[in-house]
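Notes on consecutive records. When two proteins share a document, each keeps its own sequence and its own token line. Never mix them. Below: protein one.
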Amino acid sequence: MGHKVKQSLMSSRIDFFYYAFRNILLVSVPLLVVCTLILGLSVSRSSARISSSDNLAISVPSSCTLSSSVDEVHSASIINGTYRSNIGTTTLSTFCNDKNGYSVYAIGDSFNSEGNNTLVGSNGSNISSGTATSGDTSNWAMKLALKAGDTSTTPPTIISPFTNYSTVPTTWTKVATIPSGTTDMEKGSSFTTTYTTYISPTQAAGTYLGQVKYLLTHPSAATPTSAYIMQEVANWEDDLSSPGDSVQAIDIRDGKAYWVTRLADGHIWMTQNLDFDIDTAKTYTHNDTDLGWDPNSFDSNATWKPDTTNGKYNLPVNGTSVPDWSNQNNYPYSADPGDVYYYTSNSEANDIKYNSLSECIAANHTEKDCKRYHAGNYYNWTAAIASNNSSSLTTQYTNAPNSICPAGWRLPIATNADQSIYEFGEMLYRQGIIGSSVDYKYTTNGFNNIRKAPLYLTRGGFIDGSSIINSGSYGSLHARTTYNNSDSYGLIYVKTVISMHNSWDFSKSYGKFIRCLAQ
């Protein structure tokens, strides 16, 4: 295993600055990330008949980095019953010209699974993180300290208890911070991380591997939920190497996190519904949204400014009523049901609707599972394809070039003339939900399995007119492919039938859900 770096530079409008990497215990190879400060310079000239003036304006964007250099490789051979401290040292170097300062968070990440703070053994046994130094329980722990010789006027503060050897956190936890108002940001600052372990006499012999991931954020940002960025999927897709591998990734447009999974068809899919609230004051770009990424119409300058004359967005939902919704084929509409969850019943009965996360957890479900069943937002087809007027897309098998998926993601292609591209069908077939990628018939238990791990498909109904229809019993997802003037392809699934179009009504005007897959 090697020392890996994850880096993403975000717009100054986003509170999060992500520069994440992993410390790997036992084996590590040094890697250094360098982020260049970009100086934006603009010059404008105004002139009159008898006088002139030059006006100079410069913009210095925030530039923040977190890099690592391995001083001593994290590797040790430990005899049972031995306590070993200071297993290797890594220097964490920070730079941030934002005078608001920054915070550094850490999380256990063994086996590329955020929240796993266990040393995983090749012999089938593991070592859990802890602080014990004797007894019959093997443990390992981490410690941070200021770098000797650090010359910064205001070095980072190490957060207790990580000034001593402490349990590796299973959630993103602040381990160091630097306050606002620092006057010598250009010098940066450094601190170190080391590990200790105790191996009990009964611990099985073998090699044990573990990882800790670190992350730099703006100090006013909320506690992060992930270091994976949806828009940076090309940088971390290899972390999901096998079907079933799953992580949470953040959409930089609004900071919301989504579970994404590599499925049996080889693609990485969102395994919870898109919950993107369209901001009518914002112009979305190629860098943050699926605009201009279609290889047949690639355009790095593509943008979308939501139409507010005819479109309606994030409409409130009152129970099953959406009073301000009207069925529009061509103008964008979306609705936000709020903090609603459609939890699978693990049977042919309807999904169970919970009206809050706490209500779902109180019903003896885990927070992780509850979040996977979050309803997300409803979108008509025009909003789903990031269009202000989709009236020109009327020819069967035409694929919309854009969508409101994050950049690096897209809506699935439902079908084409010879049925050689059936991305919903191929995925469901490979997952064992249907018996053929083009002939949609449930396999035994297919209907139940479509709503369990790893797909977690919900049945939140659909919006028709001013009502949510068949919530709890009816699931629907958008695709990017046109059927005719009024309909588009997609995926609909109920207890007895699963369909791409057939005799079902796939009206573009209905509000449905979205699951994106990686480009």
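Protein two starts on the next line and is unrelated to protein one.
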Amino acid sequence: MKEATSETAGVPRARQMLELAGWAAAAFARYDRASVMRIAEAVARVAESKAEHYAEWAVRETGFGVVEHKVLKNQLCSRGVVDAYRDHDYVTPRVDADAKMLEVPRPAGVVLALTPSTNPVSTVYCKVLLALLTRNAIVVSPHPFAKECCADAARALGEAAVAAGAPDGVVQVIDEPSIPLIDALMTDERTNVIVATGGVPVVRAAYGSGNPAIGVGPGNVPVLVDATADLQRAAEKLVASKAFDNSILCTNESVLVVEDSVADRFVREMERHGAHLLTAEERDRVRDVVFPEGRFDTTTVGKDAATIAARAQVRVPARTRILLAPFDSAVDEEPLAHEKLCPVLGMVRVPNAQRGIRTAVAVLRIGGAGHSAVIHSRNAETVMAYAAAVRVLRVAVNEGSSTGSAGFGTHLAPTMTIGTGFLGRSSLGENLEPKHLVNWTRVAYSTDPAEVLPSFEGMVPWEAPFEAVPPYPMPSNATVSTLTAMSSNGAGSGDGGSIELREELRRLILEELTAIVRG
């Protein structure tokens, strides 16, 4: 038998986690809405209370971003998410009397969540709460660069969920992610859907796993400022957005396209809010630092403007928040026309709004198809023309894109996962929200007028969970090592409930149980 390497040693345990998650999902799918909301509220409270703790930890572990901005993201992705969906119901069957249709919700089951290093804990918060609101179990696989803060956060949320009455194993996390382990999780038939947030290779691997997947594409956000814009407000919004968390969100603005007639005034307004306009020589030095040999240097991700300027030997004022880098045309050969996950903003001047729209289209041809775009304008015709021309699925108007396109500061769905749709070769064309993790069985009655839709009033197939939720039912042939591994994942904890309740759950989920140890 081939000896397990350090990379593959965790694969059997990961498969055990999926087995436990399947059991948790089957049990959780029987909870009523009141129980689900109680659990989500409890988890959100814990997440919000630890927002600052995990923001500091994420910056310390990854070296990316700004603590105060990560605190805000953690708050928005905990309390903000629950508040946004408080009045939504993904649990109770729906009746459409006119269509003579009964709709019964079906949770996905086991969600495998791949989370990034750029927005680590906020993405964990968001995906866990979306899963819980729809009665799914979730296994979090964090990026190796952020594994410690993400693992601790996921465990804290899982403990809060179980304490509020959720089944053991409803939230689990991989402590030591590796390529073989992630591949095993993605390709395992017990994984019902993969939600992948990260780089292009990760998303492509998710789509090629053979399991249903929701993935997102990269951004390269153009922002058009036309002559009708409120220049002072637009400058304040743009600088704040580009500086937010040191531009680490994929929704951050990448290239400013500004009408020439207002460009000088607009730059002065931006300088008032912390932008530094680079000279041609300074721009070239910054370009060489951010894009050495024409390729983006990932060591600049999430670094502040002063750090990048210092690397480029460019002197900037102490209050500098972003570096403004002018260039002539948006072509693929110009590195500054590409996505930049750092506070360097390219800038192109155009003679009129029509040319600006074409330039924004060119930026998106280079990268970011399906993602996001921004316009600052008070001309409705220009806004409409822009939205129709740019190949994206969300356009923020008179708002910063970093948070606006992510649903904070606009009425888009609040999320850390941005779908790029057909344009960006993604299965998701919207911001990820709970509705994407649940399907509905449609019970359709005959259209024959003689066929009468019966009343389903007061009928709900789910129940409030047992006061003492029975633990994961251990098989009689489980080995000591299996029991130990599963105990470390939270299985088998609790007071056990009655024998009758255990047997009832065993009976209900017997068909879900397969071999505990595989491979």
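For the record: Residues 421 and 427 are 6 Å apart (CA to CA).
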